[in-house]
């Protein structure tokens, strides 16, 4: 995604969000912030494994959270290349486990999502701050940051 500010004769405070597909065609364009629509378009563009293989490395991202920062709920989206046990865990910055979202469930291939409600394993609301979410499947592991604002 790229954000462009345009208006004849000057700059505009309104962003123009767009997604360009592999052939250079505009797949999505909007003057409003709509992350759900953009995510749906991106998911459609990445439906086949061959399409993912053709994308540049930065577009092969297999894990992201929307929204980030969150207040207090966020959806973590991820892809699995083939049938494999999946682990998705939330940690605080000290490395302590906060919550197991997925604990070894076999999934794949495909795109999946899970919600985190900002609560720990015992159902208690966690404080505002930066957390890490760690995704493991097969021989692939990725850890990313997530900011929770209450």
- Give the integer mean of the pLDDT values: 76
Roughly what fraction of the amino acids lie in strands? over 45%
CATH topology label of the largest domain: Immunoglobulin-like
Q: CATH H level of the largest domain: which superfamily?
A: Macroglobulin (MG2) domain
Number of extended strands: 10
**What is the CATH domain class of the largest domain?**
Mainly Beta
In CATH terms, what is the architecture of the largest domain?
A: Sandwich
Estimate the helix proportion, in percent.
10-25%
Number of helices: 2
Specify the oligomeric state: single chain
Structural class based on helices, strands and sheet pairing: mainly beta
Widest sheet: strand ordering: 7-6-9-10
| Anisotropy-based shape | globular
The biggest sheet, with number of strands, parallel, antiparallel or mixed sense and barrel status, is: 4 strands, antiparallel
Low-confidence stretches: 1-15, 48-60
- Indicate how many domains the architecture comprises: 2
Radius of gyration: 17 Å
Summed up:
The chain is mainly β and 150 residues long. The chain has helices at 35-45, 49-54; strands at residues 2-7, 10-20, 26-30, 63-66, 74-80, 84-92, 97-107, 110-116, 129-137, 140-148. The longest helix has 11 residues, at 35-45.
List keywords for this structure.
about 150 residues, mainly beta, Immunoglobulin-like, 2 domains, three-stranded antiparallel sheet, globular
